[in-house]
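Can anyone check this?
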Amino acid sequence: MMDLVELTAAQAAAAIGRGDLAARELFDFYRDRAAADELNAFTWVAQESPEAGDGPLGGVPLAVKDLFCTAGVPSQSGSRILEGYRPPYTATVVERLARAGAPLLAKTNQDEFAMGSSTENSGFGPTLNPWDRTRVPGGSSGGSAAAVAAGLAPWAIGTDTGGSIRQPAALCGIVGLKPTYGAVSRYGMIAFASSLDQAGPLTRDVSDAALLLMQMVGARDPRDATSLDYPGSVSLPARTDLHGIRLGVPTELSSDGIEPGVLGAFAASLELARQLGASVETCQLPHAAHALAAYYVLAPAEASSNLARFDGVRYGLRAQDATDLLDMYTRTRHDGFGAEVKRRIMLGTYALSSGYYEAYYGRAQRVRTLIARDFAATFEHFDFVVTPTAPGVAFELGAKTADPYAMYLNDICTVPASLAGIPAISIPNGMAAPPGGGKSLPVGLQLIGPAFSEDRLLSAAFALEQALGFDGRAARR
Protein backbone atom coordinates (compact mmCIF):
# COMPACT_ATOMS: atom_id res chain seq x y z
CA MET A 1 0.00 0.00 0.00
CA MET A 2 1.34 3.44 -0.98
CA ASP A 3 2.16 5.98 1.71
CA LEU A 4 0.52 8.91 -0.07
CA VAL A 5 2.04 11.64 2.09
CA GLU A 6 5.56 10.50 1.14
CA LEU A 7 4.92 10.71 -2.61
CA THR A 8 6.25 13.79 -4.35
CA ALA A 9 3.77 15.48 -6.67
CA ALA A 10 5.58 14.05 -9.69
CA GLN A 11 5.45 10.54 -8.18
CA ALA A 12 1.75 10.93 -7.39
CA ALA A 13 1.02 12.12 -10.94
CA ALA A 14 2.91 9.13 -12.33
CA ALA A 15 0.97 6.74 -10.09
CA ILE A 16 -2.31 8.24 -11.29
CA GLY A 17 -1.15 7.93 -14.89
CA ARG A 18 -0.34 4.24 -14.40
CA GLY A 19 -3.72 3.60 -12.81
CA ASP A 20 -2.17 2.69 -9.45
CA LEU A 21 -3.85 5.65 -7.73
CA ALA A 22 -7.13 7.46 -8.37
CA ALA A 23 -7.00 11.25 -8.59
CA ARG A 24 -10.10 11.49 -6.40
CA GLU A 25 -8.47 9.30 -3.74
CA LEU A 26 -5.44 11.58 -3.65
CA PHE A 27 -7.60 14.71 -3.48
CA ASP A 28 -9.71 13.30 -0.64
CA PHE A 29 -6.56 12.27 1.23
CA TYR A 30 -5.12 15.78 1.12
CA ARG A 31 -8.46 17.45 1.74
CA ASP A 32 -8.79 15.48 4.98
CA ARG A 33 -5.24 16.41 6.01
CA ALA A 34 -5.83 20.07 5.19
CA ALA A 35 -9.13 20.10 7.08
CA ALA A 36 -7.29 18.81 10.18
CA ASP A 37 -4.64 21.55 9.86
CA GLU A 38 -3.17 22.57 13.24
CA LEU A 39 -0.62 25.02 11.80
CA ASN A 40 -3.17 27.62 10.64
CA ALA A 41 -1.73 27.18 7.16
CA PHE A 42 -5.09 27.58 5.39
CA THR A 43 -7.81 30.20 5.12
CA TRP A 44 -10.17 27.97 3.10
CA VAL A 45 -10.29 24.24 2.25
CA ALA A 46 -12.36 22.65 -0.52
CA GLN A 47 -15.44 20.80 0.69
CA GLU A 48 -16.03 18.65 -2.38
CA SER A 49 -13.81 16.57 -4.63
CA PRO A 50 -13.58 17.89 -8.20
CA GLU A 51 -14.44 15.82 -11.23
CA ALA A 52 -11.48 13.72 -12.27
CA GLY A 53 -9.54 15.50 -14.97
CA ASP A 54 -6.43 14.82 -16.97
CA GLY A 55 -3.40 16.80 -18.02
CA PRO A 56 0.34 16.89 -17.43
CA LEU A 57 -0.11 17.59 -13.70
CA GLY A 58 -2.08 14.39 -13.34
CA GLY A 59 -4.85 15.52 -11.01
CA VAL A 60 -2.47 16.33 -8.13
CA PRO A 61 -4.24 18.95 -5.94
CA LEU A 62 -2.80 22.43 -5.48
CA ALA A 63 -2.74 24.84 -2.55
CA VAL A 64 -2.93 28.51 -3.58
CA LYS A 65 -1.87 31.62 -1.67
CA ASP A 66 -4.80 33.70 -0.47
CA LEU A 67 -3.97 36.65 -2.74
CA PHE A 68 -4.71 34.75 -5.97
CA CYS A 69 -8.28 35.52 -7.00
CA THR A 70 -10.35 32.36 -7.39
CA ALA A 71 -13.94 32.69 -8.61
CA GLY A 72 -16.48 32.03 -5.88
CA VAL A 73 -13.81 31.18 -3.29
CA PRO A 74 -12.61 33.53 -0.50
CA SER A 75 -9.63 35.52 -1.78
CA GLN A 76 -8.68 37.85 1.06
CA SER A 77 -4.93 38.48 0.76
CA GLY A 78 -4.63 37.76 4.47
CA SER A 79 -6.53 40.95 5.32
CA ARG A 80 -9.66 41.66 7.33
CA ILE A 81 -10.46 44.46 4.89
CA LEU A 82 -11.23 41.72 2.30
CA GLU A 83 -12.66 39.16 4.72
CA GLY A 84 -15.07 36.88 2.88
CA TYR A 85 -14.45 38.52 -0.52
CA ARG A 86 -15.28 36.09 -3.34
CA PRO A 87 -14.14 37.45 -6.71
CA PRO A 88 -16.07 36.77 -9.94
CA TYR A 89 -12.93 35.69 -11.83
CA THR A 90 -9.84 33.51 -11.40
CA ALA A 91 -6.17 34.45 -11.67
CA THR A 92 -4.51 33.36 -14.92
CA VAL A 93 -1.91 31.19 -13.22
CA VAL A 94 -4.55 29.31 -11.21
CA GLU A 95 -6.58 28.79 -14.40
CA ARG A 96 -3.54 27.46 -16.26
CA LEU A 97 -2.65 25.01 -13.51
CA ALA A 98 -6.24 23.81 -13.19
CA ARG A 99 -6.42 23.19 -16.96
CA ALA A 100 -3.14 21.28 -16.70
CA GLY A 101 -4.67 18.96 -14.10
CA ALA A 102 -3.99 20.56 -10.69
CA PRO A 103 -7.39 21.16 -8.99
CA LEU A 104 -7.73 23.74 -6.22
CA LEU A 105 -7.33 22.10 -2.80
CA ALA A 106 -7.12 25.09 -0.47
CA LYS A 107 -6.18 28.74 -0.04
CA THR A 108 -3.15 29.37 2.16
CA ASN A 109 -2.52 31.88 4.91
CA GLN A 110 -0.12 34.78 4.34
CA ASP A 111 1.12 38.06 5.69
CA GLU A 112 -1.49 40.73 4.98
CA PHE A 113 -1.18 41.88 1.35
CA ALA A 114 2.12 39.93 1.28
CA MET A 115 3.79 42.43 3.60
CA GLY A 116 5.96 40.49 6.00
CA SER A 117 8.59 37.83 6.55
CA SER A 118 6.90 35.65 9.16
CA THR A 119 3.16 35.26 8.35
CA GLU A 120 2.51 36.89 11.74
CA ASN A 121 0.91 39.87 9.99
CA SER A 122 -2.05 37.85 8.73
CA GLY A 123 -5.47 39.12 9.68
CA PHE A 124 -6.39 35.48 10.32
CA GLY A 125 -3.65 34.65 12.82
CA PRO A 126 -0.07 33.43 12.42
CA THR A 127 0.95 30.20 10.72
CA LEU A 128 3.24 27.86 12.69
CA ASN A 129 6.41 26.22 11.45
CA PRO A 130 5.93 22.43 11.18
CA TRP A 131 9.51 21.79 12.38
CA ASP A 132 8.89 23.73 15.61
CA ARG A 133 5.47 25.17 16.35
CA THR A 134 6.91 27.89 18.57
CA ARG A 135 8.59 29.40 15.49
CA VAL A 136 7.52 31.20 12.33
CA PRO A 137 7.39 29.57 8.88
CA GLY A 138 8.71 32.71 7.16
CA GLY A 139 6.65 34.91 4.92
CA SER A 140 4.79 36.20 3.25
CA SER A 141 3.96 32.83 1.63
CA GLY A 142 4.28 31.08 4.99
CA GLY A 143 1.01 29.19 4.71
CA SER A 144 2.03 27.66 1.37
CA ALA A 145 5.49 26.73 2.66
CA ALA A 146 4.22 25.23 5.91
CA ALA A 147 1.50 23.25 4.11
CA VAL A 148 3.95 21.65 1.70
CA ALA A 149 6.58 20.96 4.38
CA ALA A 150 4.00 19.38 6.69
CA GLY A 151 2.47 17.21 3.97
CA LEU A 152 -0.86 19.03 4.13
CA ALA A 153 -0.63 19.74 0.39
CA PRO A 154 1.55 18.07 -2.25
CA TRP A 155 2.60 21.43 -3.71
CA ALA A 156 1.59 25.08 -3.66
CA ILE A 157 2.04 28.43 -5.34
CA GLY A 158 2.96 31.68 -3.68
CA THR A 159 4.25 35.10 -4.64
CA ASP A 160 7.65 36.68 -4.21
CA THR A 161 8.07 40.46 -3.99
CA GLY A 162 11.29 40.66 -1.98
CA GLY A 163 11.77 37.02 -0.97
CA SER A 164 8.29 35.83 -0.03
CA ILE A 165 8.66 32.45 -1.76
CA ARG A 166 12.35 31.79 -1.14
CA GLN A 167 12.61 32.82 2.52
CA PRO A 168 9.70 30.68 3.81
CA ALA A 169 10.92 27.80 1.64
CA ALA A 170 14.28 28.02 3.41
CA LEU A 171 12.75 28.21 6.89
CA CYS A 172 10.44 25.25 6.20
CA GLY A 173 12.95 23.01 4.42
CA ILE A 174 11.38 22.94 0.94
CA VAL A 175 12.07 24.31 -2.55
CA GLY A 176 10.89 27.78 -3.60
CA LEU A 177 11.41 29.44 -6.98
CA LYS A 178 10.95 33.07 -7.96
CA PRO A 179 10.79 33.22 -11.76
CA THR A 180 12.01 36.08 -13.93
CA TYR A 181 9.75 39.12 -13.60
CA GLY A 182 7.16 38.89 -16.38
CA ALA A 183 7.55 35.15 -16.91
CA VAL A 184 4.30 34.38 -15.08
CA SER A 185 1.09 36.38 -15.51
CA ARG A 186 0.12 38.60 -12.59
CA TYR A 187 -3.52 38.88 -13.71
CA GLY A 188 -5.76 38.07 -10.77
CA MET A 189 -3.03 38.53 -8.15
CA ILE A 190 -4.03 41.07 -5.51
CA ALA A 191 -1.13 43.49 -5.88
CA PHE A 192 1.43 44.59 -3.32
CA ALA A 193 4.19 46.11 -5.49
CA SER A 194 3.40 45.72 -9.17
CA SER A 195 6.96 46.07 -10.49
CA LEU A 196 8.19 43.34 -8.17
CA ASP A 197 5.39 40.80 -7.50
CA GLN A 198 5.90 37.44 -9.21
CA ALA A 199 4.18 34.09 -8.74
CA GLY A 200 6.14 30.88 -8.33
CA PRO A 201 6.08 27.30 -7.01
CA LEU A 202 6.72 25.97 -3.52
CA THR A 203 7.38 22.25 -3.67
CA ARG A 204 8.98 19.34 -1.88
CA ASP A 205 11.78 18.98 -4.42
CA VAL A 206 13.27 20.59 -7.53
CA SER A 207 11.57 18.20 -9.98
CA ASP A 208 8.14 19.20 -8.66
CA ALA A 209 9.09 22.88 -9.02
CA ALA A 210 10.05 22.32 -12.65
CA LEU A 211 6.86 20.37 -13.34
CA LEU A 212 4.71 23.15 -11.94
CA LEU A 213 6.68 25.97 -13.59
CA MET A 214 6.28 24.35 -17.02
CA GLN A 215 2.56 25.08 -16.82
CA MET A 216 2.90 28.53 -15.23
CA VAL A 217 4.98 30.08 -18.02
CA GLY A 218 4.10 30.26 -21.69
CA ALA A 219 2.47 32.74 -24.02
CA ARG A 220 2.07 36.34 -22.94
CA ASP A 221 -1.19 37.02 -21.11
CA PRO A 222 -3.02 39.92 -22.85
CA ARG A 223 -4.70 40.70 -19.51
CA ASP A 224 -1.33 41.49 -17.90
CA ALA A 225 0.69 44.23 -19.55
CA THR A 226 3.84 43.14 -17.67
CA SER A 227 3.76 39.50 -18.84
CA LEU A 228 6.02 38.28 -21.62
CA ASP A 229 6.18 35.43 -24.10
CA TYR A 230 8.47 32.99 -22.33
CA PRO A 231 11.58 32.37 -24.45
CA GLY A 232 12.74 28.78 -24.58
CA SER A 233 11.25 26.10 -22.39
CA VAL A 234 11.43 24.44 -18.99
CA SER A 235 12.23 20.74 -18.74
CA LEU A 236 12.46 18.19 -15.96
CA PRO A 237 16.00 18.36 -14.54
CA ALA A 238 18.26 15.32 -14.64
CA ARG A 239 21.77 16.70 -14.14
CA THR A 240 23.92 14.95 -11.54
CA ASP A 241 27.10 17.03 -11.67
CA LEU A 242 28.17 20.67 -11.96
CA HIS A 243 31.10 20.32 -14.37
CA GLY A 244 31.58 23.55 -16.28
CA ILE A 245 29.36 25.58 -13.94
CA ARG A 246 30.88 28.77 -12.58
CA LEU A 247 29.46 29.88 -9.23
CA GLY A 248 30.02 33.37 -7.87
CA VAL A 249 29.86 34.00 -4.13
CA PRO A 250 29.18 37.69 -3.36
CA THR A 251 30.88 38.75 -0.16
CA GLU A 252 28.17 41.39 0.30
CA LEU A 253 25.51 38.66 0.78
CA SER A 254 27.41 35.87 2.51
CA SER A 255 29.21 37.29 5.52
CA ASP A 256 27.94 40.08 7.78
CA GLY A 257 24.66 39.44 9.59
CA ILE A 258 24.50 35.73 8.75
CA GLU A 259 24.08 33.33 11.69
CA PRO A 260 27.10 31.02 12.30
CA GLY A 261 25.04 27.86 11.72
CA VAL A 262 23.82 29.18 8.36
CA LEU A 263 27.35 30.17 7.33
CA GLY A 264 28.62 26.71 8.28
CA ALA A 265 25.98 25.01 6.14
CA PHE A 266 26.73 27.43 3.29
CA ALA A 267 30.46 26.71 3.40
CA ALA A 268 29.77 22.97 3.34
CA SER A 269 27.51 23.34 0.30
CA LEU A 270 30.16 25.32 -1.56
CA GLU A 271 32.66 22.52 -0.94
CA LEU A 272 30.10 20.01 -2.17
CA ALA A 273 29.61 22.11 -5.33
CA ARG A 274 33.36 21.94 -5.94
CA GLN A 275 33.27 18.15 -5.53
CA LEU A 276 30.51 18.05 -8.14
CA GLY A 277 32.81 19.86 -10.58
CA ALA A 278 31.80 23.51 -10.21
CA SER A 279 34.30 26.35 -9.99
CA VAL A 280 33.53 28.52 -6.97
CA GLU A 281 35.00 32.00 -6.68
CA THR A 282 34.11 35.23 -4.93
CA CYS A 283 32.37 37.97 -6.89
CA GLN A 284 31.25 41.50 -6.18
CA LEU A 285 27.79 43.06 -6.17
CA PRO A 286 28.90 46.51 -5.02
CA HIS A 287 25.42 47.99 -4.65
CA ALA A 288 23.79 45.00 -2.96
CA ALA A 289 24.41 46.60 0.42
CA HIS A 290 21.87 49.28 -0.55
CA ALA A 291 19.24 46.86 -1.87
CA LEU A 292 17.21 46.61 1.33
CA ALA A 293 17.01 50.40 1.73
CA ALA A 294 15.95 50.84 -1.90
CA TYR A 295 13.38 48.05 -1.65
CA TYR A 296 11.75 49.55 1.44
CA VAL A 297 11.24 52.79 -0.45
CA LEU A 298 10.04 51.31 -3.75
CA ALA A 299 7.75 48.55 -2.47
CA PRO A 300 5.85 50.73 0.05
CA ALA A 301 5.51 53.47 -2.58
CA GLU A 302 3.81 51.04 -4.96
CA ALA A 303 1.76 49.60 -2.11
CA SER A 304 0.45 53.02 -1.11
CA SER A 305 -0.88 53.41 -4.65
CA ASN A 306 -2.20 49.86 -5.05
CA LEU A 307 -3.98 49.80 -1.71
CA ALA A 308 -5.77 53.12 -2.28
CA ARG A 309 -8.59 51.13 -3.89
CA PHE A 310 -9.56 49.62 -0.51
CA ASP A 311 -11.70 52.50 0.68
CA GLY A 312 -15.01 50.85 1.64
CA VAL A 313 -16.78 52.06 -1.51
CA ARG A 314 -16.39 49.28 -4.07
CA TYR A 315 -15.80 46.00 -2.23
CA GLY A 316 -14.56 44.57 1.02
CA LEU A 317 -15.08 46.00 4.49
CA ARG A 318 -17.13 49.18 4.94
CA ALA A 319 -17.19 51.00 8.28
CA GLN A 320 -20.71 51.38 9.62
CA ASP A 321 -22.33 54.54 11.06
CA ALA A 322 -19.82 56.89 9.42
CA THR A 323 -20.75 60.57 9.61
CA ASP A 324 -19.58 61.41 6.07
CA LEU A 325 -17.55 60.05 3.17
CA LEU A 326 -14.16 61.01 4.62
CA ASP A 327 -15.08 59.46 7.96
CA MET A 328 -16.09 56.26 6.16
CA TYR A 329 -12.74 56.15 4.29
CA THR A 330 -10.78 56.77 7.46
CA ARG A 331 -12.60 54.30 9.66
CA THR A 332 -12.68 51.57 7.01
CA ARG A 333 -8.93 51.71 6.47
CA HIS A 334 -8.23 52.06 10.20
CA ASP A 335 -10.33 49.02 11.06
CA GLY A 336 -9.47 46.88 8.04
CA PHE A 337 -5.69 47.24 7.68
CA GLY A 338 -3.18 45.78 10.13
CA ALA A 339 -0.27 47.67 11.67
CA GLU A 340 2.37 46.60 9.11
CA VAL A 341 0.20 47.52 6.14
CA LYS A 342 -0.53 50.93 7.66
CA ARG A 343 3.19 51.43 8.28
CA ARG A 344 4.10 50.70 4.68
CA ILE A 345 1.28 52.84 3.26
CA MET A 346 2.55 55.78 5.30
CA LEU A 347 6.16 55.17 4.30
CA GLY A 348 5.19 54.89 0.64
CA THR A 349 2.95 57.93 0.66
CA TYR A 350 5.73 59.98 2.26
CA ALA A 351 8.29 58.80 -0.32
CA LEU A 352 5.98 59.85 -3.16
CA SER A 353 4.93 63.18 -1.65
CA SER A 354 5.75 66.54 -3.16
CA GLY A 355 9.27 67.63 -2.31
CA TYR A 356 10.45 64.13 -1.36
CA TYR A 357 9.79 62.12 -4.53
CA GLU A 358 13.21 62.63 -6.08
CA ALA A 359 15.10 62.41 -2.79
CA TYR A 360 13.61 59.00 -1.95
CA TYR A 361 11.72 57.27 -4.77
CA GLY A 362 13.87 58.62 -7.60
CA ARG A 363 17.10 57.75 -5.82
CA ALA A 364 15.85 54.25 -4.96
CA GLN A 365 15.04 53.65 -8.63
CA ARG A 366 18.58 54.60 -9.57
CA VAL A 367 19.96 52.16 -6.99
CA ARG A 368 17.72 49.47 -8.47
CA THR A 369 19.25 50.10 -11.89
CA LEU A 370 22.76 49.86 -10.46
CA ILE A 371 21.95 46.54 -8.78
CA ALA A 372 20.63 45.13 -12.07
CA ARG A 373 23.83 46.27 -13.78
CA ASP A 374 25.94 44.61 -11.06
CA PHE A 375 24.23 41.29 -11.73
CA ALA A 376 24.59 41.69 -15.50
CA ALA A 377 28.32 42.31 -15.12
CA THR A 378 28.68 39.33 -12.78
CA PHE A 379 26.92 37.00 -15.20
CA GLU A 380 29.54 37.80 -17.82
CA HIS A 381 31.95 35.73 -15.71
CA PHE A 382 29.68 33.39 -13.73
CA ASP A 383 26.73 31.18 -14.54
CA PHE A 384 25.01 31.67 -11.19
CA VAL A 385 25.35 33.65 -7.99
CA VAL A 386 25.04 31.58 -4.82
CA THR A 387 24.16 32.83 -1.32
CA PRO A 388 22.40 31.70 1.82
CA THR A 389 18.66 32.22 1.33
CA ALA A 390 17.93 33.69 4.74
CA PRO A 391 20.39 35.07 7.30
CA GLY A 392 19.09 32.78 10.02
CA VAL A 393 16.92 29.80 10.82
CA ALA A 394 13.26 30.22 11.76
CA PHE A 395 12.90 32.59 14.72
CA GLU A 396 10.44 32.36 17.57
CA LEU A 397 6.92 33.70 17.20
CA GLY A 398 6.81 37.29 18.40
CA ALA A 399 10.59 37.68 18.52
CA LYS A 400 10.73 40.44 15.89
CA THR A 401 7.21 41.86 15.72
CA ALA A 402 8.18 44.90 17.82
CA ASP A 403 11.23 45.69 15.68
CA PRO A 404 10.33 46.23 12.01
CA TYR A 405 13.96 46.76 11.00
CA ALA A 406 15.00 43.39 12.46
CA MET A 407 12.11 41.80 10.56
CA TYR A 408 13.10 43.50 7.30
CA LEU A 409 16.66 42.14 7.60
CA ASN A 410 15.30 38.65 6.92
CA ASP A 411 15.14 39.69 3.24
CA ILE A 412 18.75 40.86 2.98
CA CYS A 413 19.83 37.98 0.71
CA THR A 414 16.67 37.75 -1.39
CA VAL A 415 15.83 41.39 -2.18
CA PRO A 416 18.69 42.05 -4.67
CA ALA A 417 17.43 39.45 -7.18
CA SER A 418 13.90 40.84 -6.83
CA LEU A 419 15.04 44.37 -7.64
CA ALA A 420 16.94 43.05 -10.67
CA GLY A 421 13.92 41.04 -11.86
CA ILE A 422 15.93 37.84 -12.28
CA PRO A 423 15.13 34.25 -11.26
CA ALA A 424 16.30 32.68 -8.02
CA ILE A 425 15.67 29.36 -6.31
CA SER A 426 16.03 28.23 -2.70
CA ILE A 427 16.72 24.57 -1.95
CA PRO A 428 17.08 22.87 1.45
CA ASN A 429 20.68 23.04 2.65
CA GLY A 430 20.67 20.87 5.74
CA MET A 431 19.97 21.87 9.31
CA ALA A 432 21.52 24.32 11.76
CA ALA A 433 21.01 25.17 15.40
CA PRO A 434 19.68 28.63 16.25
CA PRO A 435 21.98 31.08 18.06
CA GLY A 436 22.40 30.00 21.65
CA GLY A 437 21.72 26.36 20.79
CA GLY A 438 18.57 24.30 20.63
CA LYS A 439 16.77 22.11 18.14
CA SER A 440 18.28 22.23 14.65
CA LEU A 441 16.11 23.79 11.94
CA PRO A 442 16.21 23.93 8.11
CA VAL A 443 18.61 26.18 6.21
CA GLY A 444 18.25 27.32 2.61
CA LEU A 445 20.74 27.71 -0.25
CA GLN A 446 19.92 30.29 -2.94
CA LEU A 447 20.98 30.14 -6.59
CA ILE A 448 20.42 33.28 -8.71
CA GLY A 449 20.61 33.27 -12.51
CA PRO A 450 20.26 35.67 -15.45
CA ALA A 451 16.83 36.52 -16.83
CA PHE A 452 14.93 33.52 -18.23
CA SER A 453 17.58 31.02 -17.10
CA GLU A 454 15.05 28.97 -15.11
CA ASP A 455 15.79 25.73 -16.98
CA ARG A 456 19.52 25.91 -16.28
CA LEU A 457 18.88 27.12 -12.73
CA LEU A 458 16.61 24.15 -11.99
CA SER A 459 19.17 21.78 -13.52
CA ALA A 460 21.99 23.03 -11.28
CA ALA A 461 19.71 23.10 -8.24
CA PHE A 462 18.69 19.49 -8.94
CA ALA A 463 22.31 18.32 -9.00
CA LEU A 464 22.98 20.02 -5.67
CA GLU A 465 19.73 18.72 -4.19
CA GLN A 466 20.61 15.13 -5.05
CA ALA A 467 24.04 15.48 -3.49
CA LEU A 468 22.78 17.22 -0.36
CA GLY A 469 20.14 14.54 0.26
CA PHE A 470 17.95 16.61 2.61
CA ASP A 471 15.34 14.56 4.49
CA GLY A 472 12.16 16.47 5.29
CA ARG A 473 10.09 13.60 6.66
CA ALA A 474 10.26 14.83 10.25
CA ALA A 475 8.04 17.81 9.37
CA ARG A 476 5.37 15.53 7.89
CA ARG A 477 4.78 13.45 11.03
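Reply from J.R.: I decoded it. The domain at 4-285+372-476 is CATH 3.90.1300.10 (Amidase signature (AS) enzymes).
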